[in-house]
Structures are given as C-alpha cells and as structure tokens.
Write a structure and sequence with these properties.
Blueprint (H helix, E strand, L loop, with lengths): L1 H32 L6 H19 L1 H28 L3 H23 L15 E5 L2 E4 H23 L1 H11 L1 H6 L4 H26 L6 H16 L4 H19 L5 H5 L10 H7 L3 H4 L3 H12 L11
Antiparallel strand pairs: 1-2
Helix pairs in contact: 1-5, 1-8, 1-9, 1-10, 2-3, 2-4, 2-8, 2-9, 3-4, 3-8, 5-6, 9-10, 9-14
Amino acid sequence: MLEILFISTLNGVLYGMLLFLMASGLTVIFSMMGVLNFAHASFYMLGAFFGFEISRRIGFWPGLVVAPLLVGAIGMAIERYGLRRVHRHGHVAELLFTFGLTFVIQEGVEMVWGKLPVDYRVPPSLDFPAFTAFSTNYPAFKMFELLTAIAIFAVLLLVVRRTRIGLIVQAALTHPGMVGMLGHNVDRIFMLVFGVGAGLAAVAGVIAGPALVTQSNMAGLLGPILFVVVVVGGLGSLGGAFLASLLIGLLQTFAVASNASLAGLLGPLSPSAKQQVFLADIWNVTVAQVAPILPYLLLVLILIFRPRGLMGRRES
C-alpha cells in the first residue's frame, strides 16, 4: 500500500509538472494580453519537432535553447501580422483565428515530417536512473522535467509580480493608452509577450518530446487538457495553473492505479446481469476506466460552482 501511494504520488507530480510546462505559456498570454490562444498546443508541437531536428544534428542542449527561440519568433510574427489585425474585431475573431491556425500548423508539420512518429530520444547525458524507490527506477530525465517546471514557475512569478517589466506589461493590458503616453510601445510589448508564451510552449515540447510520442497529432491529443488546467486554476493565474496541474496530475495518476468499482464497493447490492444488463455494466466499470474523463468532469464542476477557478479573480 505504501509503495502504491508513493509511486502514484511521484508519477502524479511528474505528470502535473509536465502539464504546467505546457500550460504556463498559455497562462502568460491570457493574463497579459487577454487572448485565449487555441493554437498554443501547436506551438508545443512545433517545439518538439524543432527540438528533434536540432537534437539529431547538434545535440539536445542546443535544441533546448534554439527551438524555443525559433518558435518564439514564429509566435511574434503571427501576433504582428495576423492576431494584431484580428484583435480589433473582438475575442470571437481571435478565437477563430487561433483555431484555424492549429490546422495550418498541423498540415505544415505533416508536410515536412509526415504523420508517423519520429525517433526523438532522451539525451544520453540524462538517460540514467536518478534514484530507485521500491525497486522502481526513476529516470533522471523526468527529474529534469520536474526541476525545469518549478524553475519556470518561479521565474515567471518573479517577473510578473516583482519586476518593472511585469508591471508595464500588466498596465498595458488594462490601460494601453496611458502606457503609450509614458513612452512605451504597447504593440511591441504585446508582440513580445505572445512570443514568450509561444517559446514557453516550445520548451515544453522539446522536453516532453523524448518522454512522449512526437507525432503530428500530439497537439490534438494534449491540447484540450491545457484548457482544463487554465480554467480550473483560474484564467490568467500562474499560481492557479500550477495548483491545477498538480491536482489533475495526481487525480489521473491515482485513478489509473485504482481498480475500485461500484460492484466491489456495494457487493450484494449490485444488480443482476440478467435483470438489468445496462446497470450491471455500469456497476462493473472501474475507476481506471473512467480516468481519462475525470479532468473534464472536474472542469464542469468548477464552472458550475466556482466559475473563476481555484485562484482566479472575479472581473469587474
């Protein structure tokens, strides 16, 4: 029992930190620009593929630096020549623009790398067990993911709340005219923020690519869970995204490890398969089988009982 508890907790924290790596850029973009970017998971996918290409040529560590810079530059170009012009037409136009952008990026990736998974491997410098617990070896690469996510969270929180840059960016969102009169280029600020958000998504892609499967549909597989994280945590809240990532990671990990069902809990009260076939089927469904839908059930409950999220602020 202690072994299952320890391993599930550690796996849940690791998965949660991977979610935060992906959701941090989306949170930054929304908190500073008010744009809910549907194409964010596509930037994550671009980071994974760029990291793969750079890694097989000059190594993983250069890829970890260069790939986010490239994706960040692409993000800035998209904001400058696309999103900025769409912004004047309202949030619906922004959503449709970023939604369409996901398909454009996916088609571009499939044209270059195809639909099959690429051979993106863990770098040799991190391909060893960091420690052993209950006869289970935990890779150093996963510990690297964990430490990177924590470092990004700390740096973002410091920049947004404690630096002059963060104050200027937040002021540009609520009072762009005043910030412009103080001599700051508001359009350039928004372009840089969008580029930083896209670059953070690419960092997640470079790191998650070797651990997960790097293929052209990876954005569609992981994209929806990112919006669960940011909504549950509270739109625009970095602390909320961090907390929600941990919560969802632990929730799914413990659910996957559980074979509990209504039949096992209620025993004799379970309906007979001959009398009520439909109810009998539901009675025998295990928690592990419904684990994939639990985050979305949590999302529905949050929207019903606390629409602003765990740490979101109610807007006036």
